[in-house]
Design brief:
This protein folds into two domains: 192 residues, no CATH class; 122 residues, Distorted Sandwich (Glucose Permease (Domain IIA)), CATH 2.70.70. It has nine helices and 13 strands. The N and C termini lie far apart (87 Å). It comes from Janibacter alittae. Its EC number is 3.4.-.-.
């Protein structure tokens, strides 16, 4: 048989594999070239004040620096993640979550090592049911597993999480990964958006939010329970002894003291989350969220709308805690800010005065 005819027949037989490989190669090449240009021209940088047009839509946490660039390996892995997501009909928002997760877990590198038996782009652990070592280092299979659409594992993935589309990127990623550092994914959101928008041609994946929120703000605890504890800032962790950022303010309060939402909003998380223990996150719009950690009891559910002063649970000592207290956080576009001065700007003084 003529070798050209044989080659054509072989190509036709494996046309789907060939087509998929060409798509991955094209997207990876495009990403690589674009990030090289970005490194040289300052592309993918945070928008300057007063910027308008497409760049103004990039308002995510952790805006990438002007030195952002992807290696060929990173670009190829990003392209494979996006190709799998598109085949599974995962929205660009879901692609952002996956890329942010891979950036945090492995820097978009298909690692052959990690914490304990963690491997691959998403640092999935064979001992936790994510598949064999070979499967978790297979980019296609591990990406399918991350989304919850793999045939080699029954572990829950992103698409199995009810309401993931409305969660902050870091919360959505944490529901799948159960990381010891649940906030780390947020810092990669803008970079992930830049990668996905570049590959897909989509725009506006991050909302152009106006920081501030609206409505009345009230104290989360009764006035006599607002006893200041560990403040916002760098500290030695009381359990691990490691110096790290304390991203909120603690208030020592008796076990079971009622906890209230500080302003009206929507509950986006209600339940366990790593060292936070039982955690409630309320989205107040305008890029503002509040977090209430270590709760002994949770009285709300995700998706529920709450009003200022409404009970959401009770003070506890769950998670990494040495005693009953409220760990309170205020986040602006998922970046933790010092709660006390920020709330004073909202007319709420928590320095023992309540509201």
């Amino acid at each position: 048989m003529d070798p050209w005819i044989a080659g054509a027949q072989l190509a036709w037989r494996y046309r789907r594999i060939v087509l998929a490989a060409l798509v991955v190669f094209a997207v990876a090449t495009w990403l690589f070239l674009l990030t090289v240009v970005a490194a040289a021209t300052g592309g993918f940088s945070a928008p300057e004040e007063g910027a308008t047009g497409r760049d103004a839509s990039i308002t995510c946490v952790g805006a990438p620096s002007k030195e952002l660039s992807l290696s060929q390996e990173q670009a190829a892995n990003a392209a494979k993640i996006i190709a799998v997501a598109q085949r599974l009909k995962v929205s660009p928002r879901g692609q952002v979550v996956a890329i942010a997760t891979a950036l945090q877990e492995s820097s978009l590198l298909n690692l052959n090592h990690g914490d304990r038996d963690s491997l691959g782009l998403f640092q999935q652990r064979p001992s936790q049911g994510w598949g064999s070592p070979a499967q978790v280092r297979d980019v296609v299979k591990s990406t399918e597993a991350f989304f919850g659409r793999a045939t080699h594992t029954d572990n829950r993935g992103l698409l199995d999480v009810q309401g993931w589309e409305s969660m902050p990127v870091t919360v959505a990623a944490q529901t799948v990964q159960a990381s010891a550092f649940p906030e780390a994914y947020a810092r990669h959101e803008a970079t992930s958006v830049a990668i996905v928008e570049t590959a897909s041609g989509e725009t506006g994946l991050c909302e152009d939010v106006s920081v501030g929120g609206s409505g009345k703000w009230r104290a989360p605890l009764p006035a006599d329970a607002l006893v200041p504890g560990s403040p916002f800032g760098i500290r030695l962790h009381p359990i691990t002894g490691v110096a790290r950022m304390h991203e909120g303010t603690d208030f020592a309060a008796p076990l079971g003291t009622p906890l209230h939402a500080m302003s009206s909003g929507k509950v986006v998380h209600a339940g366990p989350m790593g060292g936070y223990g039982n955690l409630v996150i309320v989205d107040h719009d305008g890029g503002i969220t509040t977090r209430y950690a270590h709760m002994s009891q949770v009285d709300v559910r995700p998706g529920q709308t709450v009003k200022a002063g409404q009970r959401i649970g009770a003070v506890g000592s769950t998670g990494q805690s040495t005693g009953a207290h409220l760990h309170l956080e205020v986040r602006v576009r998922e970046e933790a800010v010092n709660p006390l001065p920020w709330l004073q700007g909202k007319g709420l003084d928590l320095n023992g005065k309540g509201s």
